[in-house]
Amino acid sequence: MSQVVFAARNRADSGSGHARRIRRAGRIPAVIYGHSGKALAIDLDALEFANGVKGISESTIVKINIDGKTHDAFVKDTQREITDGTILHVDFYEVESNTLLRARVSVHIQGNPIGVREGGILELPLHDVEVECLPGDLPERIVVDISDLKVNQSIHVRDLSLGQGVRLISGGDQVVALVKFAKAEEAAASEEEKASETAEAAKE
User: Fold this and answer.
1) How far apart are CA 204 and CA 18, in angstroms?
2) Cβ(106)–Cβ(128) below 8 Å
3) pLDDT confidence of residue 152
4) Distance, C-alpha 126 to centroid of its chain
5) pLDDT tens digits for 79-124?
6) 188 Ramachandran zone, left/alpha/beta (phi>0; psi -120 to 50)
7) Phi-psi region of 53 (alpha: psi -120 to 50; beta: other; left: phi over 0)
8) Which of 24, 34, 42, 153 is buried deepest, with most CB atoms within 10 A?
9) Which of 178, 58, 7, 32 is nearest to 109 (CA)?
10) How confident is the model at residue 191 (pLDDT cuts 50, 70, 90)?
11) What does the alpha-carbon distance between residue 183 and residue 141 come to, in Å, rounded to a whole number?
12) Residue 156: closest CA among 139, 177, 187
């Protein structure tokens, strides 16, 4: 996926009245927050942002072009109108190319597990992991193929392929995906075990 680029303008004025005028003009007020704590007020074309933000995740780095100067940043927060979902304000967090960052990367599951085809139940308790790396090494997503997963087997965070230069922050023992016996089968197995124990006790 090619990097998303937004064209923006510097915004000198502030206040709710000015923000309303920006929105009436088809633009969105926004702020870029940097490592030093400084904040840069900008505004963006509302339609361009709404279209560009559709396919990105929390770990996607976008480019913001302001009068020929570009900033690499995450989309950290979008404030929306409750009634119709219109975007009212955007917060960006700027990243520096030579500075390590920490981010949460979504985990995408693909494949139909063998264990599910044999009657098991698939559980996916984890949807993202935290990593540390340089911005250029940050994956947009981590794809996990679970096709070979059998009943009573699981995939843990430590099993994920993160790529060179990416360090895992989340605990490696956390379960990403597992296939369990169906409850009915578990109950039947439990009943068989009890019956076996009762028979053994009777023999004694």
Assistant:
1) 87
2) yes
3) 93
4) 11
5) 999 998 899 999 999 998 888 999 999 999 999 999 999 999 999 9
6) alpha
7) alpha
8) 42
9) 178
10) low
11) 32
12) 177
